[in-house]
Amino acid sequence: METVIAGVEDSRESRDALRFARQFSDAEGAALHVVSVFADTIFVASLEEIEISRESYFKHMLEVAEEELEQPFEFHEVISTSVPGMPLEIQYGTVLVLLVFVLGMNLIATLIRNRARARRQW
Fold first, then answer.
1. Less CB within 10 Å around the terminal CB: N or C of the chain?
2. Residues contacting 17, CB < 8 A, separation 6+
3. Ramachandran area for residue 29 (φ above 0: left; ψ -120 to 50: alpha; else beta)
4. Three-class SS of the chain
């Protein structure tokens, strides 16, 4: 194993998970990557307020991780944005497109598998 990934938030369980991830990565000789996710909602606050909130959140999560982990680790910031009040038609359209994509990929995989089986000599 080359990499261990652990998420961080400001909770006792998260701190326990960070300590476990450190022990596990040390035992495996793997690099430890710590990930924190910030979920902001656009159109609720100004962009400046969101940016300040995001920066302070990630700074605090980095401090939490540094408190629990004494050895070096890589810290990754992930931003999740949502749009409130999305019309129902767009939501259903998104589901339909994703379903067609997944079913299409499944069909292609089945065709490839069947073709490979037909070529194989038993």
1. C
2. 6, 7
3. left
4. CCEEEEECCCCHHHHHHHHHHHHHHHHHCCEEEEEEEEEEECCCCCHHHHHHHHHHHHHHHHHHHHHHCCCCCEEEEEEEEECCCCCHHHHHHHHHHHHHHHHHHHHHHHHHHHHHHHHCCC
Look at the block and give the residue holding tokens 């990934």: 5
Cα gap 76→57, rounded to integer Å: 13
Query: What's the one-letter identity of residue 75?
Result: F
Q: Which two tokens stand for residue 84?
A: 């409130």
pLDDT in tens, 82-98: 766 778 888 899 999 99
Pair of tokens at residue 122? 């038993």
Q: How many whole angstroms separate alpha carbon 10 and alpha carbon 61?
A: 7
